[in-house]
């Protein structure tokens, strides 16, 4: 992998890993709902020029149902997932919430399996089990600290997994790539959140909200933006939200989906270290152990079938009596590959036969003339 491709992975990895820290710092100066609105509004606008170019280049025309799908996707990611995520950061350690969000690809696998009937391989099941075990170790249900924040962070990660599936399915139907779908979902989600923020200013609504939840009453739109906070807002909105998500989708196109998965593989390990250095959040023993388990789960997801075949090879060497079972697996694999080759040969023969028949008909017409 050359330096340019490596940067497509390293830059979004650092930005995603610093996201919780920046939001934690800004959370003390802004209403959490307001910060969520500003972040996705500016982040979506930063991606808009690239979206317009893509739509013009590919002549994408979005129908009414397409806009409806985009609006629903924006509601799921901005209004639901990221609002819960922002609230969870104010209630729990930034390092723990970062690890929670990094587990969203695993939840996406579960959602795809349940609702879209997508197949789960044995390696995916193993990765799922390891990730869930790692989350339980970090959460430590027998000694919960900041339980509400952890639960909100976990719920946010699950909904983020739903968003990932929706974005992939709806984007394919509409004809948008990942970056364009993300941009429009951000803008629609920010608009929907802005409507809800406006409703919170209605006296009947604001008076009905309990005092313990004052952050949901009379939510400001751009309050707190000063010369001192403006650089932080730009970092969160443009770099952490717009550029990070944009480069993530570009990395999938430039280096492949598997290599792009390294972003979420490294984040659970890097985010706690940055939280320790910048915020002074100490890492407990169970957090470190949970991180290791989650990294193993992510590694299994990344390696996929390659790891499975390596394990089978080791098993074969250490268990000679099991050769027959392993050989049967390899025979099945060879049959599948050969069947694909046979299909290819058959298609080629059909094409040649059709061409010869067309040429023969042309010769017959010429001879008649």
UniProtKB/TrEMBL annotation:
Keyword Acetylation among UniProt keywords: no
UniProt KW keywords: Cell membrane, Membrane, Transmembrane, Transmembrane helix
Membrane topology listed for this record: Multi-pass membrane protein
One Pfam family from the record: EamA
Keyword Transmembrane attached: yes
Gene Ontology annotations for the cellular component aspect, listed alphabetically: plasma membrane
Major localisation: membrane
Top-level lineage group: Bacteria
Domain EamA: residue ranges: 5-139, 148-302
Matching InterPro entries: Diverse_Substrate_Transporter, EamA_dom, EmrE-like
Localization of this protein: Cell membrane
Spans through the membrane: 38-55, 67-88, 94-116, 123-142, 148-171, 183-209, 229-250, 262-280, 286-304
Family: Belongs to the EamA transporter family.
PANTHER family from the UniProt entry: EAMA DOMAIN-CONTAINING PROTEIN, OS03G0707200 PROTEIN-RELATED
Name by which UniProt lists this protein: EamA family transporter
Organism: Companilactobacillus halodurans
């Amino acid at each position: 992998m050359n330096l340019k491709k490596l940067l497509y992975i390293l830059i979004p990895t650092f930005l995603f890993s610093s996201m919780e820290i920046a939001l934690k710092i800004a959370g003390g100066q802004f209403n959490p709902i307001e910060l969520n609105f500003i972040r996705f509004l500016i982040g979506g606008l930063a991606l808009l020029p690239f979206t317009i170019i893509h739509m013009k280049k590919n002549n994408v025309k979005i129908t009414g149902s397409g806009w409806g799908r985009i609006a629903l996707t924006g509601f799921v990611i901005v209004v639901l997932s990221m609002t819960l995520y922002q609230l969870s950061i104010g209630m729990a350690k930034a390092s723990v919430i970062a690890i929670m969000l990094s587990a969203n690809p695993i939840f996406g696998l579960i959602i795809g399996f349940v609702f879209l009937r997508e197949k789960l391989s044995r390696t995916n099941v193993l990765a799922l089990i390891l990730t869930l075990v790692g989350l339980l170790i970090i959460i430590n249900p027998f000694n919960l600290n900041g339980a509400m924040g952890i639960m909100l962070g976990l719920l946010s990660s699950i909904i983020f997994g739903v968003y990932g599936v929706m974005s992939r399915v709806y984007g394919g139907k509409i004809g948008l790539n990942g970056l364009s779908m993300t941009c429009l979902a951000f803008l629609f989600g920010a608009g929907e959140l802005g409507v809800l923020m406006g409703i919170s200013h209605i006296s009947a609504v604001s008076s009905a909200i309990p005092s313990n939840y004052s952050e949901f009453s009379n939510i400001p739109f751009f309050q707190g933006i000063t010369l001192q906070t403006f650089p932080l807002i730009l970092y969160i909105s443009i770099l952490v939200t717009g550029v990070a998500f944009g480069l993530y989708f570009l990395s999938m196109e430039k280096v492949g989906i598997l290599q792009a998965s390294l972003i979420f593989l490294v984040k659970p390990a890097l985010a706690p270290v940055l939280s320790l250095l910048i915020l002074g959040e100490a890492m407990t023993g169970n957090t470190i152990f949970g991180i290791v388990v989650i990294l193993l789960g992510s590694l299994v997801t990344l390696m996929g079938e390659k790891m499975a075949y390596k394990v089978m090879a080791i098993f074969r060497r250490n268990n000679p009596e099991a050769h027959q079972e392993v050989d049967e697996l390899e025979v099945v694999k060879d049959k599948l590959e050969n069947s694909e080759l046979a299909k290819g040969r058959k298609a080629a023969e059909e094409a040649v036969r059709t061409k010869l028949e067309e040429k023969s008909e042309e010769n017959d017409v010429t001879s008649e003339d």
